[in-house]
Design a protein that fits this description.
This protein has 210 residues and is of the alpha/beta class. The chain is built from 7 helices and 6 strands, in the order βαβββαααββααα. The protein is 33% helix and 13% strand.
Length: 210
């Protein structure tokens, strides 16, 4: 199968990006309802204090059940600067910080009104930097089942493990931490990131279960 399907995410996890290897089309679920406690508005990085999960705050209200394209981001608190400070602290000493940080900063400082648009901006950023030959498309309606496509919607990526390693900034302090945000491998491995994803895919693509 040359196509893959999953929900929109903010700086998605490395394990998910590894599934892009060998695919031609990425189909993003545009017709789902928002779900709490997911990678739709959360991403994890490795800091000097260990793994940290950063969340995008949403406008108050019952977001659960709201169409994903209608979920609005809240800027009542200055979370953009807090996220950027945390990313700088975590990866400022990484070998490829200068190559990616300012693009990340530019994306977050756009202050997108809608979560879906922010997620897609971060997705296109990562695909471009990884130089993946992947066409991004969107669902036209919600379908429970798909055929001839790798349906990876709502996978619990935090349970995904890999034996493939790369050098992380805080590895000596915390040992290797797998399956962080795609930002981690980009800052730490730079142009070798796609090679890392390819190895993860080859080693683990048979153990992903729904």
């Amino acid at each position: 199968m040359k196509s893959i399907l999953h929900e929109s995410q903010i700086f998605g996890p490395i394990s998910q990006f590894s599934q892009y290897v060998g695919k031609e089309t990425l189909l993003i679920e545009k017709n789902e309802s928002y779900q709490k406690r997911s990678f739709r508005n959360r991403y994890s990085i490795l800091t000097s204090n260990g793994p940290v999960t950063l969340s995008i705050p949403l406008k108050k209200g019952k977001n659960a059940g709201t169409a994903i394209t209608d979920v609005r981001i809240s800027y009542d608190e200055n979370w953009v600067d807090k996220h950027l400070h945390c990313i700088r602290s975590a990866y400022g000493k990484s070998p490829y910080f200068e190559f990616y940080y300012y693009d990340v900063e530019k994306i977050l400082k756009k202050k997108h009104s809608y979560l879906f648009l922010l997620n897609m901006d971060t997705l296109h950023f990562a695909i471009k930097k990884l130089k993946l030959q992947l066409t991004v498309e969107y669902t036209h309606s919600y379908q429970k089942d798909y055929f001839n496509i790798s349906d990876l919607r709502n996978i619990e990526w935090n349970l995904y493990q890999t034996t493939i390693k790369y050098t992380q900034v805080w590895e000596e302090k915390f040992n290797f931490t797998p399956n962080l945000s795609i930002l981690d491998v980009l800052f730490c491995a730079g142009p070798e990131s796609t090679s890392v994803l390819t190895k993860i895919n080859a080693a683990n693509n048979l153990i992903i279960l729904k």
